[in-house]
Design a protein that fits this description.
alpha/beta, five-stranded mixed sheet, two-stranded parallel ribbon, 14 helices, 12% strand, Anthranilate phosphoribosyltransferase
């Protein structure tokens, strides 16, 4: 008899939490898990199911202590656009503005260079950064929380996901299960139509303020290209809005203008950005940093957010913070 309920029918939040708890605890067989995840993805995940799955993950993570005003800036990944590392650069810029950033992430899965890969190419010892995460967050205002270090229950699930070779609900789980238990976030997802569903889940889980964003072309961050779906989640309230680059005083640019490469390529671009190089990559970082600064309560609008983020770059504060991080993560 199967341990898991049939996933072709809607699950309540409690049913989803039990099902994902059983999966993370290793109770069902690999075949059962694979079938359940595929059926759920085929049907389309509901807010209640995302919420239940996130609660199960949160109950089993290894937490860290973090400042009350810490935020996270990340995307769900899997958008297929292979852009330069925007959220990584945003994390450095926002931390340089004085907002602690507990960045939750991993190495590349579907892209050529994930956050960890690019930071490593910049000279950050990623194993040491993981070990010293709580310390660097407290002392210099930034850390990297390796998913593998904080979600041991996922070790059972990861090979099944790789074998499936498709997007599942677990692609949505990372931003909802930050080990620092942040209450403010900028989360990019690769499916614009899922923004209100994901926002509903975030509201059920509880947040002080979170922006859920998705570019019209399926970018898992704020896009300079056309427009963006944005859900502003404050407590249980969700406000949907449209935002484009012009609202932040920035020029539109196609996604191809920020196309990335391997870790070395992306690290070189990020180094140039921190030295003040102009162009679409800088604008994309400024746009997303502005969103993060609004969420953090640092600024009230997009233009002020862009100005503060630009100042952190142009005064060398973001570059200096990276250098301090590299030195501290030993």
């Amino acid at each position: 008899m199967s341990v898991l309920p049939p996933a072709d029918l809607p699950l309540t939040e409690a049913e989803a939490e039990r099902a994902f708890g059983d999966m993370l605890d290793g109770k069902p067989s690999d075949d059962e898990i694979a079938r359940f995840l595929s059926d759920l993805s085929d049907r389309g995940e509901r807010a209640e199911e995302i919420t239940g799955a996130a609660r199960a993950m949160r109950d089993r993570l290894i937490p860290i202590e973090a400042p009350d005003n810490a935020i996270d800036v990340c995307g769900t990944g899997g958008d297929g656009h292979h852009t330069l590392n925007v959220s990584t650069a945003v994390s450095l810029v926002v931390a340089a503005c004085g907002v602690p950033v507990a960045k939750h992430g991993n190495r590349a899965a579907s892209s050529k260079a994930g956050a960890a890969d690019t930071l490593e190419a910049l000279g950050l010892d990623m194993d040491a950064a993981g070990r010293t995460a709580e310390k660097t967050l407290a002392e210099i205002g930034i850390c990297f929380l390796f998913a593998k270090n904080h979600h041991p229950a996922m070790a059972r699930i990861q090979p099944i996901r790789q074998q499936l070779g498709r997007r599942t609900i677990f692609n949505l789980m990372g931003p909802l299960s930050n080990p620092a238990k942040v209450r403010r976030q900028l989360i990019g997802i690769a499916r614009p139509a899922y923004v209100p569903i994901y926002a509903d889940a975030m509201a059920r889980l509880g947040t002080e303020r979170t922006f859920i964003v998705s570019g019209d072309e399926g970018l898992d961050e704020l896009s300079l290209d056309e427009g963006n779906e944005v859900a502003d989640v404050q407590g249980r309230q969700v406000l949907m809005r449209r935002v484009d680059a012009s609202e932040a005083g920035l020029q539109h640019a196609p996604v191809e203008a920020i196309r990335g490469g391997d870790a070395a390529h992306n690290a070189k671009a990020l180094e140039a950005l921190l030295l003040g190089a102009p162009g679409p990559y800088r604008d994309a970082v400024l746009f997303n940093a502005a969103g993060a600064l609004i969420v953090a309560g640092e600024v009230d609008n997009w233009v002020d957010g862009v100005d503060e983020a630009a100042e952190a770059i142009d005064k060398g504060l973001a570059k200096a913070l990276l250098e301090c991080w590299i030195a501290a993560a030993k």
